[in-house]
Structure formats: structure tokens, C-alpha cells
Amino acid sequence: MSKNIQAIRGMNDCLPTQTPVWQKVESVLRDTVARYGYSEIRMPVVESTDLFKRSIGEVTDIVEKEMYTFDDRNGDSLTLRPEGTASCVRAGNQHGLLYNQQQRLWYMGPMFRHERPQKGRYRQFHQFGVEVFGMSEADIDAEVIAMTARFWQAFGIADKVTLELNSLGSNEDRAEYRQALVDFLKQHEASLDEDSKRRMETNPLRVLDTKNPDVQAVLVDAPKLSDYLSDDSKAHFSTLCERLDSLGIKYTVNERLVRGLDYYNRTVFEWVTDCLGAQGTVCAGGRYDGLVSQLGGKATPAVGFAMGLERLVLILETLELTQDIPGPVDVYIVVAGQEAEKQSLALAEKIRELLPNSRVQLNCGGGKFKKQLQKADKSGASLAVILGDDEVANGQVTVKYLREEKPQISIALTDLASALTSDS
Ligand code: ATP
Ligand code: MG
Fold first, then answer.
1. Which DSSP string do the residues of 275-329 spell out, in sequence order?
2. Which residue has its alpha carbon closest to ligand 1 atom 29?
């Protein structure tokens, strides 16, 4: 016998039992951003490799070791997108959406990174992201963060996530700080691990991100980025903090928060949770005023975030908040008798017209009455509508309540909608 082909490691099927929670998550996110007047943009999942090298940065984890890059049949180097921001900026530039305009955009879809698969970390995963263009003041940073806070409320997890905030300042501020940090790290090189030594040369701010407690101890005395911020950057950050305060959104300033991608400046933030073990960041973003021009467009300020949907779903599952999400069937039609069977497809269509907001599943393929009722129960439906020969002849149906202690009723088919709404 031939061996069954398996999915690629770290790339998951989303099975029918899991899709209801995903659909729920997706619709809450869509509905929430719609309430802020944001528009959807859809980008291809494959882009030129250069796009990601030029935006995310050559010496980041993503570009150095996580990208799915291959030559296509023409010999062009292509990459499965590891994130959405670069593609969104590319699309905005290409279609003239950005220069001298304001755009509030969102996207959702699969991303690809060749990482070690583990809980909350996969090779194909899904992000919901927002990108806003053409606004440089801190009010829009606050709006974007307020929107994320509203997500948590909508999912009932507001008390399970916390907001960490930092300002990276301008590129100039950071260049000066970078030098001071490198000088400090050089003095303490003996106490650094290999990873930090390497990063000291390539991307020193990332050393601040270390998970190694020994290196963290060294960093206690490191120069602070906040001491190197220009007055403008400080003012921007304090306005953001004031706006968040006035919204009642709590945050902690984390001076070590630098983010793994090169394009950020000024505001950076992460929403973190302790429900998920090591993979605790659910949503991360910030300002990237330089990226549009870096990718060939006219300078345009921008801010955004991306959220990992697998991590969000995991939080909901961990907290057992997925129980009430309904399955795919509300009404299951049981067919008893030959005449009923002949008419069952047409009657099912009729019932769908009478109950346009219900998900109506018809028993197909016959079967004993009891068996059909078992299938009705298993379908998760709250009601069984029974079509028997006599009833069909009289234009009637029987409604059996599957989840409530209520006697079944016999009613005219045409009264089905009113009977069901009046008793609920
Ligand atoms: P991490 O530090 O966990 O590797 P990151 O800084 O690489 O995250 P971003 O590039 O900022 O993550 O992506 C935004 C969000 O996308 C993350 O906060 C996380 O929720 C999600 N995410 C990133 N990589 C993965 C992955 N491999 N699997 C599942 N979700 C992911
Ligand atoms: Mg990562």
C-alpha cells in the first residue's frame, strides 16, 4: 500500500470542528475595523524576495533564516510572504494609494516562516493586520491601539492581555543610541552569549530583546534609548501616552521593546499574554515612517500592527471561551415515509425560504426514524423538523426541540417561521 501523504510540518489543516471559532474570530475582527471606517486590501502571497530584504532588513531573524525563498521557472527569486506590511506598502506605492493621501487599511491571510514548529508558532500561520498611511501625529497611533483594545473586549479577554509600549525615536536618535549601546556592549562582551555578540555587530538593538537572564542582568546598566530621544520624538510619545490615558487604556513602558523588524521608528507596541507560555505576543506593531520611501514611494508616514490569529484562537480555547460558538446546523429535517421522501428536497428548499437566517440540513439517504434523530442530535441542531407522510399530505410539519424540555408541536408548514420566533 502506498504511504499516505502528510501536510508539511508546521502547516496546519483547519478542520470542520475548528472552523467555527476561526469564522467567529474573523468576523469579530472584520466588524470591529469596519466600525472605525477601515478598508480591506488583499495582496498576493508571493512577492519578489527583494521586497522583504529591503523592508524587513537583511540582518533580521525573518530574512536571515525564516523565509521560504525559491527561484521560479524564470529564475526570479520569489518568497512566500512572511508578513503583510511590506506587501501592503508595495501595493500602495504601485497603485498610487499613498502619496498625499490618507489610507486606513486592513488585511487578513496566511504568512509563512520557516521556524521550529511549536505551540503558537507555525510555518504557515495567519495574521490580521492594519496599516494606516498619511498621518504622522500620535492621535492615529492611539486610534490603532484603541482598536486593538476593542478586539480584546469583543473576545472577552481584555483582562488576559497587557499592552507594552516604547518609542524607538527617529532614525537619527537611534543611530546615536546604537553607538552608545555598542560601546557599552563591547565593554561587557565577556558576559554576552554568542547570539548577543553576533547581534552586537549586526543589529545591536536586538540584544535588548534577549531572553537570556544572564545577558538581561548585564543590560540593567546599559544606556537607555529614552535618554537619546529628540524633543520631537519625546513629545510624540508623551502625546500618545496622554491619549491612551484619556481612553483609559493601561500600558507599561518597556524600554527593552525594540521589535524584530528594521522598519519601525517612534511608537512600537505589543500586546502580550501569559496564557500561552513562551509564545506570549498576540499582536505587535508600531510606526514606520521611513518604509514607504525606502520602497521607492514618496515619503509617507505610516503606522500599523499585525496579530497572530492562531495565538488568539489558542487564548480563546485555553480560556474555554469557544463553547458557545454554534455549530453549522440549526434545523435538521427528518424524513419519515415514502411520500415525504419524494418531496423532502423541495420541502427543505421551502423551509430555507421560510427561515432565511437558519442553517437547514436535510437528512439524505433515508434511514430509520431513530437513526435520523440521532443524526439530528449529532448535527448540533436545536430543532428537528419532521416530515411524515400524513403531515406532508396535510401541509404540516412536526417540530421537535432537541435541546430544550418542551413538547413537540405540529404546525402548518407556512406557520413555521412565526411559530419558531414567537416561542423563542
Ligand atoms: P515572535 O517574537 O513570537 O517570533 P515576531 O516578532 O516574529 O514574533 P511579528 O513579525 O511582529 O512577530 O508578527 C506579529 C504577530 O504574528 C506575532 O505577535 C505573533 O502573534 C504572530 N506570529 C509571528 N510569527 C508567528 C509564527 N511563526 N506562528 C504563529 N504566529 C506567529
Ligand atoms: Mg519571530
1. SSTT--EEEEEEE-TTHHHHTTS----EEEEEEEHHHHHHHHHHTT--TTS--S-
2. 121
Average pLDDT rounded to a whole number, residues 34-40: 98
Single pTM value for the model: 0.92
The CB of 313 under 6 Å from ligand 1? The reply is no
Task: Point out the ligand 1 atom lying closest to the alpha carbon of residue 127.
Answer: 16
Nearest to 259 by CA among 106, 49, 51, 56: 56
Q: How confident is the model at residue 424 (pLDDT cuts 50, 70, 90)?
A: very low
282 lines ligand 1 (CB under 6 A): yes
Nearest-angstrom CA–CA distance, 345 and 360: 11
How far, in Å, is the centroid of ligand 1 from the Cα of 379?
36
For 424, residues 6+ apart whose C-beta sits below 8 A from its C-beta are none
Question: Which ligand 1 atom is nearest residue 282's CA?
Answer: 20
Contact 308, 82 (CB under 8 A): no
Q: 308 C-alpha to center of ligand 1: Å? A: 6
- What are the grid coordinates assigned to 54, written together? 529591503
